[in-house]
Design brief:
CATH topology of the largest domain: Spore Coat Polysaccharide Biosynthesis Protein SpsA, Chain A
Helix content: 25-40%
Strand content: 15-25%
Number of strands: 25
Structural class: alpha/beta
Strand order of the largest sheet: 6-5-2-10-14-11-17
Distance between the termini: 69 Å
CATH superfamily of the largest domain: Spore Coat Polysaccharide Biosynthesis Protein SpsA, Chain A
Amino acid sequence: MGSPGLKRARAKMADAGVEETAIEVFSHYYRLLEHGETGMIPESSIDPLDMESLADVTVSDEDGVAALRTTAVIKLNGGLGTSMGMDRAKSLLCVRRGMSFLDVIARQVLHLRERYDVPLPLIFMNSFRTSADTMAALERYETLAVDGLPLEFLQNKEPKLLEKDLAPASYPKNPDLEWCPPGHGDLYTALVGTGLLDQLIEQGYERVFVSNSDNLGAVADPRVAGWFAESGAPFAIEAVKRTPSDKKGGHFARRKSDGRIVLRETAQTLPQDLKDLADLSRHRFTSTNNLWFDLKAMKQALVQREGVLGLPLIRNVKNLDPSDASTPKVIQIETAMGAAIEVFDGARTIEVGRDRFVPVKTTNDLLVLRSDVYGIGEDYVLSQEPDAVPYIELDPEFYKFLADFDQRFPEGAPSLRGATSFKVNGDWTFCREVEVRGDVELQRPRSGDRVDAGRVLGDD
């Protein structure tokens, strides 16, 4: 079974009712940690990756709808939005006209079902922290669940490990903080452990489209479904060209040793390789975390590997209580679901438009989403109005947390359709109908200041 630390961690997971497959997957990564595995992907081991574009692909309407008819949708919904000061599911956040992420997602799927006459199950992968709030918010959509399939399944949880000796952390003051989610790579383990993978196959579904609940651009489009079905690939990820906003994010590459596609995250990049990571001309594509996989191919891979896909380890070091720097350093064992691309021979990537990648990770992103940069049609699909999304940089001292952000935009977001970049330094409050044009930077005022109603910034 391994070291005393692993024995204690396994016992803790078993006592908490964690499913056996998840315990075995955790044990696999624990042993890697013990042997000094870092999960790093050196620049010297990879080459840049090019790929085909969805804009150049032809899929007939009939083939697209046929593929959608045997597709299920999974939304990753385990995040609390803690980076914005939230303590509940981030998908409950209001994004437009009184609608939350959950409202928009539900209405997107219901519209697709009606338009194309397809079952299109929608299933949320919740965490133990987001399940109750999410399910309560979805009660209003009485027809959302598909007969024979659940509306949610739970991702697993695992103990945080003390960095000094890999023992499971103890925190009697708040025992919940002793646990963490295993990253979204846990998707595959949870699908097996809950029996959902087998359920989907038994009911005749052939593929799954997975995306983050904070990305409202990730719609189950029949054209993409048709491309994936016709490709014959077991696994695929949608990609977009990287922009300055993505410099610190992950990217696709091709591994020199075997030619397989890999997804390198920032946490897997050596310090000396960070310059190459940020080079947008070298590594041109980043993952949208919109992925497609063939259900039977996934089942076969999991059976062959005894439930452990063997995704690259991500060693995430944090404080036991993230809000208290005096608490001990802990390691959170994580994996990224997109890293499964390297498991499958014949896996594909495809470049899609930026309209399919509208993630909200910070209040900078939220300001854009709430502005007139995006429209929402009767199908509840986002439409990007300007040719390019403006670059936003709000002073984190005053805008990082949602409560502070909302206080400074009490009457809604300014018009950003004509903006190229918008940087706010210091404490500014924005009145109604403010418009930003071109490149605008507000300097830090001596004390809190405001932008008056109807003001056009960038004209002077």
